[in-house]
Amino acid sequence: MSLHKLRLAAAVPVTISTFSSRLFLKPFPNTLTLGLFSRRLQPRKPLLVRAFSASAAVQDIPATQTSESSARPQWKASIDFKWIRDNKEAVEINIKNRNSNANLDAVLELYENMLNLQKEVERLREERNNVAKKMKGKLESSERERLVEEGKNLKESLVTLEEDLVKLKDELQHVAQSIPNMTHPDVPVGGEDSSAIRKEVGCPREFNFPIKDHLQLGKDLDLIDFDSAAEVSGSKFFYLKNEAVLLEMALLNWTLSQVMKKGYTPLTTPEIVRSSIVEKCGFQPRGDNTQVYSIDGTDQCLIGTAEIPLGGIHMDSILLESALPLKYIAFSHCFRTEAGAAGAATKGLYRVHQFSKAEMFVICRPEDSEFFHHELIQIEEDLFTSLGLHFKTLDMATADLGAPAYRKFDIEAWMPGFGRFGEISSASNCTDYQSRRLGIRYRPSEPLQTGPKKGKANLPATKFVHTLNATACAVPRMMVCLLENYQQEDGSVVIPEPLRPFMGGIELIKPKLK
Amino acid sequence: MKGKLEPSERERLVEEGKSLKESLVSMEEDLVKLKDELQHVAQSIPNMTHPDVPVGGEDSSAIRKEVGCPREFHFQIKDHLQLGKDLDLIDFDSAAEVSGSKFFYLKNEAVLLEMALLNWTLSQVMKKGYTPLTTPEIVRSSIVEKCGFQPRGDNTQVYSIDGTDQCLIGTAEIPLGGIHMDSILLESALPLKYIAFSHCFRTEAGAAGAATKGLYRVHQFSKAEMFVICRPEDSEFFHHELIQIEEDLFTSLGLHFKTLDMATADLGAPAYRKFDIEAWMPGFGRFGEISSASNCTDYQSRRLGIRYRPSEPLQTGPKKGKANLPATKFVHTLNATACAVPRMMVCLLENNQQEDGSVVIPEPLRPFMGGIELIKPKLK
C-alpha cells in the first residue's frame, strides 16, 4: 500500500460502502431442534461487513450506521492476530468445517492495513520528534517558520491517522471476534450425523404395558402444571408440585454432594448479569433469535447458564499458577427465550424458558484442559449411570460445536415417552477462547530465582488460562428421563436409590386418591 | 313498528328510532369510558382494615409477642459481611463487576446452609398440610398488578423484560395468586395451602441508607413463601396459623425476635392485617424484618377473579338447575414468608458466631447439611 495513497486517504476521508455478495452470510441450517446447549452457534442474522478494496486504506464510519455501532461489543478480546495470519490455512479450514460466518479474508486484510497504518503513524511521530528536536537549536527565522509549518502539518496528519487507526482497530476487533475457536484434531468433521459415539451405557428398558410420556405422568400424578403457567406466564413455563418439588431438590442436593467429593467448590450465582459478560462468554445477547432475555432500561440480561457468571468471577484478573485449577459447581436458575426452536422437540419439560441447573466450571493451565475435559465427562457419566439411565456420550462434530468450544462431548439419554434420545448434558473445552475475552490470565510459578533482585522484569509473562464447562444436572431433562423410564404399570414412578435419602426416604411416587 | 301503520306514522317512527340509536351509541361509548375511569380510580382504594390494627405510622405498630433475648457476647463481634469474607462464604466484589451492586455469590458452606434452610423449612411446613410448589419467575405484568403491585412507573420494585409484557417476580405470592385466577373453586376444595420456592427479583429503587448493607437488601434472593386460599370466615384463623408457623420456625432456629401487628400506615394496599417478624441482628445492632404475614381478604381475589361456590345444603326440588346453585363468592387469600434466605443468613451468621471466628449451625439444620455442626475458618 503506497504511503502517498495513505496520506490522501487521511486528508480526505472517503466513504466506501461496497457489499460484495461473498460477504453476505448465507443463513446456515438450523441444527437446534434437539440441542439444549448449542445456542452458541453463530449469529443467525446476516453480518454486514464493508468491503475494503485495495485502494482504500480506511473507511469513514457514517454517522447513520448507529445500529451497527451500538451492536458492537464495547470491549476488546485479546485475539492473537499474528497467529491467525501465520496459520491462516488451518483457520480457514476450521471456519469452513464449523459452518461459521466468520470472514477470515476481511480479518487478514484489516490486520495488514492496521499494521501498515501503525507503521505510518510511528513514522510520522518520529518525523515530528525530529522536527521538534531541530527547533531546539539556533535557526534562521525563515527556517524556523518552515519547520513550524512542517510540524503543524505533521501534527494534523497524525491526529487524522491516529483516529483512523483507532477505527481500524475497532473494525478489526469486531470482525475478528466471530472467528471460532480452533478444533481438537480428533473431532469428526461434518454435521449432526457425523458426531461419534464415545460410550454407550445401558439399554432401553422393555415395557410390558403401554407407557405414558412425562406430560401424561405429570398430569396423572399431579406433579406438573403447564396450564396455569400458560395463563400466568405464557407457554413453556410450568409449576412443579408435590413429589416433583422434592425430586428437584433431591437431584440438586445429591448432585452437589457427589461433585463436591471430587473437589469442586459449591457456589450460587447472580442470575442477572451485564450483557458484556454474556458476549465475552461467546453468546449473543442482542439481535433476532437471541436466546437471551434482556432487562428493560438497563444493560443487564438474564443468564441462560451459570457458565456466564462463573466466567465472570475471575475476569480481568491474573491468577497465581498455584491457585489453579479452580473447580466450581454452581446452582442457578436459567432463562432462555428459545426463539427459533420449533417442532416436536419442544414438548413439555424438554424445552422450557426457565429451569434449575447445576453447572461445573474449571479454570486451569493450558496443558491441563484435556485432562479436565475427561474428568468432567467422567463425572457426568458416573452421575447418570448411578441414576440408572441409558445414554450415549457423543464427540460432537465440527458443525455442531459452538464458537467457543475446542471440543464438546454431549450426553443423550433414552426418553421412552419421546421414543428417542434427548440431550441431557454438554461438556465443552473452550481452551482460551473465553479467557481471551474475559481477560483471565495466570502467572506461571517461577523456577529457582538466579539473581538476587526480584523485579517486574524477572517475572514470567502471564498466559491465558483455559476454561471448561459441563452440565452436572439440568433438572427438567432429568425429570423427563426419570419419570418416563421409571414408570410402572399401576401409574406410579420408582425413585432411583441414590435420590431416596435426599427425599426423606420416599421410594415411590404413587397416584393420589381423588 | 311491527304493526300496521300509516306511512307518515311509519316515517316518524323510523326517524325516532334513528335518533334513539345515535344517542344510544354515544351514551354507550361514554358509559364504557366512565366505567374505565371508575375502575382506574377505584383500584387505588386500599383494603379495609381489621379493627384491632393500631392506627398510625411505624412507631404505632404493636408488639404481639417477643421470643428470646439478645445474646451477650464477651468478644468483639463481626457483622455478616466480615464473617462472609473471613469464612469465604459470600462474594460481593466479583458480583459487582459481573452484575452490579446488591448482587452476590454464595460459596462453600453458605451454599449448603441455603439448601438446608430451604429443605428444612419445606419439610416443617409440609407437615402442616401445605403443598410444595416451584413457580415461574417470569410472569405477565397484568398478574403483578392484580396482586396489588405496581410494575410500571418510577421507583417500581419490578424488573420488566425488554420487548414483552412480562416481568420478574418479586415474590412467589404473584405466581401463586395467578394459579387459580379466573376460576370458580368448589367449597370442598378449600382451603388450598401452598408452600412455594422461588428466586425473587427486586429493583430496590428508592431504598437507600444504612438499611442496604450486605445481604440485608439485595436484588435477587431465594424465598419460601406460604399462600392460603380459603373461605372468608376462615381467613382470620389461617392468619393466626401462618404467624404461628413462622414463630415456630424461627424459635426452632434459636432466633431472638418480635412479632409486630403493623399499624395502618405500614400496611400495603392489599393487606387487611399484617404481622411482621423482626429478628435481632447483632452486627447491625438492631432488629431487621425477616418475614411478613398478610391477610388480604378479598382484595386480590376480586382482581384475580378467584371465586368459590359454597356447597349446597339438602336439595329441596327434584331439578338441579343453574337457578338452584348458590351464588359464587370471592375467596380470601393470605401470604406469609416461611424463609427469606439472605435475611436468615444475616441472623444465623451474626448470632451464632464464636470468638475463634467460626459459626455454629443450629441443630435442626445439621441433618440437612450432611451433619456439619460448625463453619470453621479455612486454612490459607
From TrEMBL, chain A:
Residues 213-496 form the Aminoacyl-transfer RNA synthetases class-II family profile domain. Pfam families: Seryl_tRNA_N, tRNA-synt_2b. Its EC number is 6.1.1.11. It comes from the Eukaryota. Gene3D superfamilies: Bira Bifunctional Protein, Domain 2, Serine-tRNA synthetase, tRNA binding domain. GO terms for molecular function: ligase activity. The keyword ATP-binding applies. Keywords: Aminoacyl-tRNA synthetase, ATP-binding, Coiled coil, Ligase, Nucleotide-binding, Protein biosynthesis. NCBIfam families: serS (TIGR00414). This is serine--tRNA ligase. It comes from Camelina sativa. The gene is LOC104770644.
UniProtKB/TrEMBL annotation, chain B:
Its EC number is 6.1.1.11. Pfam families: tRNA-synt_2b. Residues 10-44 form a coiled coil. Keywords: Aminoacyl-tRNA synthetase, ATP-binding, Coiled coil, Ligase, Nucleotide-binding, Protein biosynthesis. It is an enzyme of class 6 (ligase). The gene is LOC104755443. InterPro entries: aa-tRNA-synt_IIb (IPR002314), aa-tRNA-synth_II (IPR006195), aa-tRNA-synth_II/BPL/LPL (IPR045864), Ser-tRNA-ligase_type_1 (IPR002317), SerRS_core (IPR033729), tRNA-bd_arm (IPR010978). This is serine--tRNA ligase.
